[in-house]
């Protein structure tokens, strides 16, 4: 059995006892024939969760054991030194396993604050989801916790804390779940993790969040005031492009002037696994002059489409295949609306035809396709069906004290949106704020409904201001699961809700 931490958080005795609790506090409007209350909560320690995990296990699966430490130390961002929290480096060391493998990770907390790990995008067992005070106790300083679960689906994933705004430090790393059947359309792989950075450079994410909670968002006219940087804006994102000013953005832990170089050769086909680990920044990504064939969204295959540029919201992943030309080219990541970029160089040994700074202007002019309009491959597409239950999620903010809400309420882990195993669940997300929200569902992947058609399978998708996004998923992973905005400041300020399995 996975090891349990030595101490309990302030509400754990209630939350970890979900399996015995009666769902008198479960609320929410369940439309189209769904039930809106009653029943027993299926908590993280319920027999149903263990049964779902057994069903995921396959004969002959490998077991991978890893020891991981969350530490406080200096890191080199490419000639810029920052004191931050990390898993030993920024990004942390990649974990790579195969579909169906059992992963065992012991996390030792050497930080001055409690922490956790969320395994972003995986449909794993509920008690390993890494949400303090909901699925596990906080891992106290000096304590440890062992995560152990089966990885059921191949794809590009990553892991990060779900404790406060720790995601905006250096606590993240890729998790790649390989599919033995892949590889026919590429020769090698390159993982590119993108991030926005301010920690250890005169401020911390906690101080930034405290400032937002005290004084709210800066006025959008501050950019015209002497000495005040302009707040990020993007027509593509509907106006506001972020709440926080960052001095740098990173690709694989490095600023643009000191990029990682990936040795390659002309004609080689590279599978780019793109991950946006940022807290407040959307990236547009491309290889100038080289088309990319998009093959996967959030780990699941899509009908391949050739594009010059893609958009990546916080928490989202895209896999793209590129064929290397007879020159050195950058994988460019423009921070949307910020005037910043990061890069990884695909080096053939030959000189580049143009410098990266000039190429960013070309990338910025390209028309960015709607990523939610990608189409899931037939092998993974969920059929168009009438839902058994529909939940409306109205996204609003910022209110007083920088509050962000779902259905007029800040996150309350005792008040969930009820669903039942076996249902087709529809989430109708309506963005009534003036800012975009990349919405992430834990423990499931959903089918985007794009204009009544089948879109991509995803676990994170952007909802633009004034727009509505409809997604469906199969309720096949019992437990208590978060749904939240993956802007870490929005989520921590209240834009989270709970999908609550009941029986």
From TrEMBL:
Keywords: Capsid protein, Cell cycle, Cell division, Copper, Metal-binding, Oxidoreductase, Virion
GO BP terms, alphabetized: cell division
The Plastocyanin-like domain, residue ranges: 82-181, 240-325, 395-499
Domain of life: Bacteria
PROSITE patterns given in the database record: MULTICOPPER_OXIDASE1, MULTICOPPER_OXIDASE2
GO MF annotation terms: copper ion binding; oxidoreductase activity
Signal recorded as keyword: no
InterPro entries documented for this protein: Cu-oxidase-like_N, Cu-oxidase_2nd, Cu-oxidase_C, Cu-oxidase_fam, Cu_oxidase_CS, Cu_oxidase_Cu_BS, Cupredoxin, CuRO_3_CopA
Signal sequence interval, chain numbering: none
Protein's name in the database: Multicopper oxidase with three cupredoxin domains (Includes cell division protein FtsP and spore coat protein CotA)
Organism of origin: Lentzea flaviverrucosa
